[in-house]
Amino acid sequence: MNDELIKIENLDVNFRLKGKLFAPPDVISAVNAVSLSIRKNESFGVVGESGCGKSTLANAILGFVKPDRGRIFYKGQDLLTADKKAFLSLRSGMQTIFQDPYSSLNPRMPVWALISEPLYIRGERDKTVLKARALELLRRVGLGEEDMDRAAPCFSGGQRQRIVIARALALQPEFIICDEPLSALDVSVHAQICNLLQDLRKELRLTYLFISHNLAVVRHMTERMAVMYLGRVVEYGDTEKIYKNPCHPYTRALLSAVPEPDVGGRPPELLRGEVASPINPPAGCRFQSRCAYAKEDCAARPDGLFEAEPEHFTACCMPLLE
Amino acid sequence: MSLLEIKQLKIMFAGGGGKLLRAVENADLSIEAGESVALVGESGCGKSVTGFSIMRLLKTPPAIVRADRLTFDGADILTLPEPDMQAIRGRDIGMIFQEPSSALNPVMTVGKQVDEVFLRHRGLKQKEAREATVALFRDIGISAPERRYHQYPHELSGGMKQRILIATATACRPKLLIADEPTTALDVTIQAQILELLRELREKNKMSMLLITHDLGVVAHNAERVHVMYCGKIVETGRTAEVLTDPLHPYTKGLLRAVPRLGEKRDRFEQIPLSVPHPSAKPEGCYFHPRCSEACEACKKHMPPLMPVGKDGARAVRCWRSG
Question: Do the chains contact at A263 and B268, CB–CB below 8 Å?
């Protein structure tokens, strides 16, 4: 399809642990056989628990880690085989909003310099141009001229995240990876940041990769999504379809575990045990050790997704069969 | 008499330049035997220091703790001699924390750390303590307890470490467990397991719990009553079911509306404007008025008292507009 901004095919990212003498090194399979595509102007969600590979996936797209297998296309060009110059020019269209605005902003720099630093790095040296652009960006995210010369420690968490967002917009990117943008913030400012991200996406025609462990936020913030477990995508497709009709046992357990401020309601389906080790993970389905529906042949299941309904793919639909 | 009774608790910190930061202002809180009470609020609202003050874990100075009454099971926490307080800590009141990794000693096996509770409060011999610890691990759902006994914290997952801490805190079957954001650092499926474990323990040991959290979702199934705190003041209190279904204070309403829910998809969220003020810059009048859509003139000038709502005295709200 032409409207794909990012296309990932069969991506594997492994980390090798320091080997013992004469023994082969242990391999952490952080991302395994992941294929997905992100369409232009959509917000694409990735959910999963810690260690599921969602941040590694983002780092692979950004070029921070080198995949062992697979291809990543951005606007139809392969990022992994592109030469350095081509990569850098493609890469400037991608930016990141990090999780913790307390550690992603240099506390000694004034806000205008923080925001305009990407432009400075790209060769802009005229201070009046840098300041003018910084002010424009600052206003866009709901801060003002009086904030230009203050440093990050003067701001609350929500304001800091606005500064991080302004900096991410400095190079007029098309694609922004939001890596847990809310989880370091107080709950009363979540709504502010969600609304700001939604507004910016509409106004600037941005595409988001929205990574979160908060399933409620992902439902509201994304149109399509992938659920990851231990390096693999287990369910993929239209967000509303996945929430209305979750197929994979893991997705169902995840949705049921979210505590909601309702009285009454259903008790959560408890998952037994914990996430298995990503070092030499089990053959076949990686969720089998915690799955209530697991059968002997799960170890022999080929990985891969099948279509449960149009725009909705899953690796397993056992809960629906029983 | 309630198990825990707090009347007019004030906690202050001597800040730089002779400034006094008021972290908790005139808070009342009581917990009956076997009851679970939640203290909800955002970072800096004073909920954690309230928990610490019950354990008398605040360093004084810089902290200053004053109260008309602060009693646990009849004992006056404010004046109790330190040796008596040490006997209460860990035996009658247990506490678990948000970040299980930082609450465990990294250079000691987890088994030995739990042993300490038995050695100290039960006067067991080392060998007996070890047997008690392994039995406790088994009770609390720790797999392969004999092997875990000899492991160090870094060898365990976050959920497993939190189980170890719960084992430590409940080893002596305390009357009260203070759970300070017990699941905030954990993944949702593990969070559900830990909350289930706490429910089982409360039922089995008839234990009371003070649940400190920022998450109203966690409160829903885990506390009978809830106190909502904002900027050091309790702004609303009542039975959990009533507060969640019919919030009276604009802050509680805002929190419930502003938090994204799993249910129906929404395009925009109703937002609470601005952010929590710094404790040294609390506004005049009601602390919430600059962020409140219902604020009137009185709200800007006078702090409303915590006014009882209804007849049974379980419900109260600190707001001029919903009195």
Answer: no
